[in-house]
Amino acid sequence: MKIYGDKQSGNSYKLILVTSFLQIPYEWQGIDTKKGETKTDSFLQMNPNGKIPILICDDGRILSESNAILNFLAEGSDLIPKDPFERAKVFQWQFFEQYSHEPYIAVARYIKHYLGIPEERRAEYESKQAGGHNALKVMETQLKKTSYLAGDQVTTADISLFAYTHVADEGGFDLSSYPKILDWIKRIQSLERFVSMCSV
């Protein structure tokens, strides 16, 4: 298999984590979005949406969208519950990640960490703060009840949310107000075969 992505992208990092946890062999193909490499004709033939990550299977089939790839790679493992309702809870958190978390925390991180908050994007950056904190509050509430987001066992929901949450400070979000999230981050980092974003 081949994974096309950026190792500093949370969405790509999800796949690095799951392949490490499950010891899935793959070939990495680095993509530099700042150089427009997702907008080339060759890349757009693989993903017309022009976004990373994408997975190319051994048989040539192509899959895009990070959580779809993540769940595909984890299929049949303990990271995805067998019970239909418990599995739906995992998907619930992944939809939350894409619609209520990533658009705020990941975008704020990009504007602050990579762009240095240019004046023309300051208002956008500031507008992301309330939504990001709301997402963190939802996670904190759940983690007061369970060790992991979908229950007391780690699932792909945790991988999805961990990717951008653990670097939320790079987007201006102070996690010291969320002690349960900090405990959860430590639990993820203590898992066997965990790899950090900065080491990959």
UniProtKB/TrEMBL annotation:
Entry-linked PROSITE patterns: GST_CTER (PS50405), GST_NTER (PS50404)
Keyword field contains Cytoplasm: no
SUPFAM superfamilies: GST C-terminal domain-like, Thioredoxin-like
Domain GST N-terminal: 1-81
Any Pfam family the entry gives: GST_N_2
Gene Ontology MF: a single term: transferase activity
Keyword field contains Transferase: yes
Annotated keywords: Transferase
Domain GST C-terminal, chain residue ranges per copy: 83-200
Protein name: Glutathione S-transferase family protein
Organism: Leptospira perdikensis
